[in-house]
Amino acid sequence: REYYKNNKELLLTKQKIYNEKNRVYLPETFFSLEGQRLRSSKEKIIDDFFHLKNIKHIYEPKIKGWHFWPDWIVEDKFIIEYFGINNNYLNYDERTKIKTEFYSSLNDYVFIPLFIKNIKTIDILQISLEPVFLYQKEQVQKKNSLRTGDNFGPY
Asked: Which one-letter DSSP state was computed for residue 96?
């Protein structure tokens, strides 16, 4: 984390240069089931999966003080980033490494990277997101134990 604080200006400069020199314009427009504009058909698959599974998610949240914004923050606990380009297209591998290191360094979130192989089928996507489902189950159990009074011991 300290590395990113000390080198924030360098990273911002790199990102600005990348943005100015290597703009990628996507001709197609994709919308999620919720009407959110997305950057790719694969992001649509992931976002729609969150929606259909009732997983609380925010697409590309802008977080003050961060020099990147993740593809999704899920259940206020997970950062999900979809890395969908291979072969170092426009320094994508370098950006993937920097983003992975940054998101992994955050103590308040669990980072889950997704790649093309993680979304080949819905079953594979579900397995890739297993920590989210376990967390959801945990939260439901906590709520239920508070309602039934199970948390007060054997009496």
From this structure: H
* CA-based nearest residue to 86, from 115, 58, 57: 115
DSSP 117: G
CA neighbor of 32 nearest in space, from 3, 68, 58: 58
**Is residue 7 scored above 50 in pLDDT?**
no
**What is the spatial distance between Cα 35 and Cα 58, in angstroms, rounded to a whole number?**
13
Give 53's contacts (C-beta < 8 A, 6+ positions apart).
133
* Separation CA 8–CA 16 (nearest Å): 12
CA distance linking residue 44 with residue 117, whole number of Å: 16
Q: What is the DSSP letter of 115?
A: E
pLDDT for residue 55: 96
pLDDT of 155 > 80? The answer is no
Let me know: does 109 contact 77? Beta carbons within 8 Å.
yes
pLDDT in tens, 75-128: 999 999 999 876 666 678 888 899 999 999 999 999 999 999 999 999 999 999
**What gap in Å lies between CA 110 and CA 2, rounded to an integer?**
18
Q: How many residues does the structure list for the chain?
A: 155
